[in-house]
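Dear colleagues,

I hope this message finds you well. In preparation for our joint manuscript, I am sending the Probable cobalt transporter subunit (CbtB) (Halobaculum gomorrense) sequence together with its predicted structure, so that both groups work from identical material. I would be grateful if you could confirm receipt.
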Amino acid sequence: MPATNAVHERWSLAKDELTAAQAAAVILTAGALGFALLLIQEPTAHEAMHSFRHAAGIVCH
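The corresponding structure tokens are as follows:
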């Protein structure tokens, strides 16, 4: 991968800087948000989660 790839740099930084407990917390938080999105399909809640993902920089479609 090219060295200018911002996502590649973020993964490298995360591998170097995060402890196992921090990585687990990130994975659990992302999983909880995804689970909530699947369960809460009420339009207002769904749109709020959708907007949050965009604000966090997560591409969803």
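For the figure legend, we might mention the following. DSSP finds three helices and no strands in the chain. The mean pLDDT is 79.

With kind regards,
E.M.
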